[in-house]
Amino acid sequence: MAVPDDVVPLYSISILNISKATEIILNKIRDEFISKVNLAADEIEEENTVDNIQKKFSQEILLLLNKYLPRLDKTKIDLLINYLITQNIGLGNVEILLKDPNLEEITINNAHEPVWVYHRRYGWLKTNVKIPNEQRIRHYSTIIGRDVGKEITLLRPLMDAHLKTGDRVNATLSPISTKGNTITIRKFAERPWSITDFIKTNTISIDASAWIWLAIQHELSLLISGGTGSGKTSTLNAIANFFPPNQRIISIEDTRELILPNTLHWIPMETRLPNPEGKGEVTMLDLVINSLRMRPDRIIVGEIRRKAEAEVLFEAMHTGHSVYATLHANNVEETITRLTN
Fold first, then answer.
1. Rounded-to-10 torsion of CA 87, 47, 273, 228
2. How far apart are CA 58 and CA 84, in angstroms?
């Protein structure tokens, strides 16, 4: 949607329109709900935590709605229950954006600006979604990290994580990001790219595809390099279709990005940062050493960003296994320079 006097098009979604009076009542329900509901520690650590919490919250919210708004019909009650849950234990209206398969990136820059999105066809767009305050952005970052065992604090103001859907998340806290707290979500395709998709879109030639297939069949190691957003992870996902289904594949990543075919014998592993006391860290090198005890046929080392990760890559190669990885570099010469310097 084009907006007068604005050079950036608007991506507009339908947001539940609540009157001021209803909003006051909902805030009262929210406050009473927060003071009433208490989850024990063992409940928080259960599997399917989000589903369990949402079920319990729905029951409690229903009682409160019947208390303060007794004349509502079932449709409106369900709508308000969903609204209260998404606003308080979900990501609010951002969850509506997450459901659009045409969006590649969703970015929250601060509480003063609208949420931005990157559309596959139209590029960067402003949305009509705004986060009410900086505390809410930090709250979203906290619940995203909590679900995957990561944390973001003033002492650790940077976080790489992922949603349970696999979408990659980066979060920062002010004053590191000087305008305010930020969240950047990179959405992955619901159906990962295949090598045939690459051929149909002229991304890769048939001869090159055949050469890669031959290299994988002969268990050669591969390094996929390219610039930011060039499709390195998508390419790695695509060539993974060439892996024999009767071989054991171990993937090692800082932040979970890979989505390999369900037909593969695949074990994904992810590093872990130390806790505030400096304990419990699991590094990529730890996972490589551990993976060798898991009888892998092939090892995938996720994106290489630092020297230590490059060393891990070659450690894995020295074990005699086929190794696959991605690296930020614009050409072959730059790739070699980054690996050797």
1. -60
2. 9
For tokens 């590191």, what's the residue?
176
pLDDT tens digits, one per residue of 111-170: 999 999 999 889 999 999 999 899 999 999 998 998 887 889 988 899 988 888 878 899
Please confirm whether the linkage preceding 175 is cis (ω < 30° from 0). Answer: yes
d(C-alpha 244, C-alpha 8), whole Å: 47
What does residue 183 show for φ and ψ, rounded to 5 degrees? -140, 130
Residues 16 and 154 grouped into a single domain:
yes
- 175 and 201: one domain? no
State how many domains the chain has.
2
| pTM of the complete model | 0.69
Q: In what order do the strands lie in the sheet with 103-108?
A: 10-11, 123-127, 116-119, 103-108, 182-186, 168-172, 158-162
Rounded CA separation 276/155 (Å): 9
pLDDT digits (tens, 9 = 90+) for 72-118: 888 888 888 877 777 767 788 898 899 898 999 999 999 999 999 99
Do the Cβ atoms of 190 and 230 come closer than 8 Å? Answer: no
